From TrEMBL:
Membrane topology of the entry: Multi-pass membrane protein
Residue ranges the record marks as coiled coil: none
InterPro entries named in the record: MFS, MFS_trans_sf, MFS_Transporters
Major localization listed first in the record, in broad terms: membrane
Keywords in alphabetical order: Cell membrane, Membrane, Transmembrane, Transmembrane helix, Transport
Official protein name in the record: MFS transporter
Localization, UniProt: Cell membrane
Regions that span the bilayer: 21-43, 49-72, 84-104, 110-138, 150-170, 176-195, 235-255, 261-281, 293-316, 322-349
UniProt KW Signal keyword: no
Pfam family, one: MFS_1
Amino acid sequence: MATTTKIRPRALVRASGGPRYAVALAVDALGTGLLRPFLLLYGVTVLRLSAPATGTAMTIGVVAGLVCMPAVGRWLDRGARSTVVAVSMLVRVVGVALLLATPAGHVWPFATATLFLGIGNQAWPAAHAALVATVAHGRERDAALAAGRALRNAALGIGALLATACLAGGTTALRSLAAATGLAYLAAAALAWSVHLHARPAAASAEDGGGDGAGGADAADGPAPRMRALLAANVIYVFCLNIPEIALPLVLVTQLHASPVWSAAIFVANTVLVVTLQVPVTVLMSRFPRRTVLALAGVVLTASYLGFLAATSLAPGWAAPAVAAVSVVCTLGEIIYAGTATALVTALAPPHALGRALARFQLSTGLGLAVSPAVITTLTPPRPRPPLGHPRHCDAALRVCRRRGEGPGSLGPRRVLS
């Protein structure tokens, strides 16, 4: 039976890297929230690129960013911690600078900017997890990783709200958002650098128990774990967790003909639940072995997708609210997964191979993120065309007749006043 921990805010801040590092996380996430959701819009409206070219450049940037992960893993295994975190943020500063310098109509400078942004976005999770794993141990590490995720989601949400409020300013506002993102990344990098945390990977640790085969002097002298089953499972988990972001809005609007407000409500509920429940649920689950909790996350996600299948078969007036209700269950599965998966990797990996293990885990995450949009959109059936005589066709014909003065109650053509 694993040792449980308690929620102590000050202890969580210390276990997460200290107050300055917590501020760095918040500032970095705030900057990411300002730009990441609107990067496609920036390419289309500010740089006047076509939507396919912009999307392709962004995809290439994400995939190419994964290529750097083996080097990041080796760097972490040499003991670097806060330096790698700071560099991942500085790389994104370069990406934002290139974005601001890209002339309108030029796709390759934009692709280069997204490449640097992709490198920083892919390197940061592994570097952050390695830093927390160096400061905290055992189940306190799980809670610290969960606290960092909750803080980051809160700052991402605030950044996205601020950016949404500024979109009325057009291209000038988007350029200002990009500049603010660069400044946020620069400030976050300076704060992370000031932590000055370095690890001694050769030192064995026996503090990472919990029934998962973690830690210890023997593990420190052994080879790095392959974790093939865990990495394969992570690809599936990430793929499934991308469904609410990609497939649900598509199904709600094109299949269920629901208002886009339902999609927005689902995203807001997801953010609020993650911010408020990530740490309590992770602490609650700390009484069970991590492998068991990760399997439980799969069970909860499976139940949620069966619920989605049932909800979409309901009558139009009930389908959208039912999908929104089931999405809460899906979010709970996401919370259980996120509070356990990375913590399990840090518990399984010996200190001398922690960086490589986290890099492999991030590669599996990136693979799931990269393939899910194409697969999900391919599997989603096209919007059905209403049959002849459907009320939508009748309504459209009636509107045409009324505009022409030929509808019911008319006595022939007449002038229609606008």
